[in-house]
Amino acid sequence: MINENSKDRKELPVIKDNFNDSVILQTILDQRRPNKEKLFPIRYRITQNRKQFYYGTGMYCSISDWKDIDSKKTESIKLRNSIKKGHDSMKDNIEIVLENNNQLFSFEKFNNLTKKNLSDTINSAFLAKIESTKVAGKIGTSIFYGCALQSIIKFKDDKIKFPDITVTWLEKYRDYMINNGASYTTVGMYCRAIRSILNEAIKAGTIREREYPFGKGKFEIPTGEGRNMALTIQQVGELMRTDVSITESKYRDLWFFSYLCNGINIADLCRLKHSDIKSDIISFYRQKTINTLKKKVKIEAVMLPQMKQIIERWNEGKKQSEYLFPFLNGIADPVQIKKTVQNVTRMINEHIKRIAMRIGINEISTYTARHSYATVLKRSGTSISFISESLGHTDTKTTQSYLDSFEKDEQIKNANKLIPTI
């Protein structure tokens, strides 16, 4: 059954089939990341012209069991049969795509066919989504769908059929989440993840539209009430003037740079390069939307003197790298990049919260910098259309959500004008 030794030192012998001298299907033991039990995932890998996609099997085993897979042991026979069944199914789908597409292979058509045939449970559909987003380098999205899946499994189990997802099921899931301390914002996010999976299932033909539980007169996804995340210009000034330690000063600088640079998020801040600065204008694309928007929106911010000073302080005594801030030097792996960005964000939040509490500000984070940027400009009379463009929003409705707290403050301020002086 095992008929080739992989040249990749991280892989063991594989099960392999060739198609048209251009497509290769392999079933491998992926030794890159073991699970908590120190077992490794068995994956299908399809290669076409050096382009590779990995597909999870849901099966794990040890290195020794994989090496012993051709033995006559009962466990080896069971594992071998399970692997062969899945491998043959993938093989059949490849042959169907080739037959229906003039012997030309298409990953898109294969993925649609595979989802239709294999994703008979919402769990397996989630796993496919997690895997595909990870392969595409969308690590944050992959982690998000993983968290949503774990929440669903805790609510029910790991074998939830698509027809089980009804309006009643979703209402019970919503109530379960709320009763266990989740916010309506979190519930809404996870329900939108389920909706996305069901939308893909309809396109793949896995479920019929009449079985779709979302929409008018059906289940309505809850939305959380936005919090006042913005600071006033006076609070920003006080935050920057207060005495801090050397370490606190460095991470406060990053928060302030984010605020000044159009409320740039930390993932984009870490990716900024010296080459992005031209004629005192720094430009960048938002990583959050660059793969989802047809029209790529480049954001431009003025390089204020304070921003230049922050860059100089962070690079003082260091050899200049391609990045403005030397966090991602030498890092190419998307997973490691995600972890690095998360660590930088955590460090900024820890230090800025500590500083803010000393001056009586209790709610603050890196996200506050973005909200504060928008709200301070609005208070100064800047148009919403300019703010929306500078934030990289595709419409002003999204921008308006950042300014809700400002509107409420204005309502209170205007209402007080009605009270006569006695």
Task: Walk me through the structure.
This protein has 422 residues and is of the alpha+beta class. It is 51% helix and 10% strand. The protein is built from 16 helices and 7 strands. The strands form 2 sheets. Strands 1-2-3-4 form a 4-stranded antiparallel beta sheet. A 3-stranded antiparallel beta sheet has the order 5-6-7.
- Contiguous helical run count: 16
Largest sheet: 4 strands, antiparallel
The best one-word shape is globular
End-to-end gap: 94 Å
Low-confidence stretches: 1-11
Radius of gyration: 26 Å
What is the strand arrangement across the widest sheet? 1-2-3-4
Q: How large is the share of residues in beta strands?
A: 5-15%
H-E order: EEEEHHHHHHHHHHEEEHHHHHH
Mean pLDDT: 82
Structural class designation = alpha+beta
Please tally the β strands and state the result.
7
Helix content: 40-55%
Descriptive labels:
disordered N terminus, about 10% strand, alpha+beta, three-stranded antiparallel sheet, about 425 residues
Mind sketching the topology for me?
Layout: E1 15-19, E2 23-29, E3 40-48, E4 51-61, H1 63-67, H2 74-100, H3 107-118, H4 122-135, H5 139-155, H6 167-179, H7 184-204, H8 233-241, H9 246-260, H10 266-271, E5 277-278, E6 281-285, E7 298-302, H11 305-314, H12 334-358, H13 366-379, H14 384-391, H15 396-402, H16 404-416
Antiparallel strand pairs: 1-2, 2-3, 3-4, 5-6, 6-7
Helix pairs in contact: 2-3, 4-5, 4-7, 5-7, 9-11, 9-12, 9-13, 13-14, 14-15
